[in-house]
Amino acid sequence: MIKAELFGVCPLTTAQELLTGKWTLLILYLLSKETLRFNELHRKLPVLTQTTLSNN
């Protein structure tokens, strides 16, 4: 099967596709600790541009 066919069917493939990106795990970690609005999250990650943060 092709990876695209497994998206939504296989939990492992779906997670791999959704959790790609350099900053995704750090963003998820911060959001798991507390609820943050976009600007609050941006203040905690000043190295990220707003564009990069909104793409993740």
UniProtKB/TrEMBL annotation:
Question: By its UniProt entry, which InterPro entries does this protein fall under?
Answer: HTH_HxlR, WH-like_DNA-bd_sf, WH_DNA-bd_sf
- Do the record's keywords include Transcription regulation? yes
- Sequence ranges assigned to domain HTH hxlR-type in this UniProt record: 10-56
Q: Which UniProt keywords apply?
A: DNA-binding, Transcription, Transcription regulation
Q: Which Pfam families match?
A: HxlR
Alphabetized PANTHER family for the sequence: TRANSCRIPTIONAL REGULATOR, TRANSCRIPTIONAL REGULATOR, MARR FAMILY
Q: What is this protein identified as?
A: HTH hxlR-type domain-containing protein
Q: Which organism is it from?
A: Sporomusa acidovorans (strain ATCC 49682 / DSM 3132 / Mol)
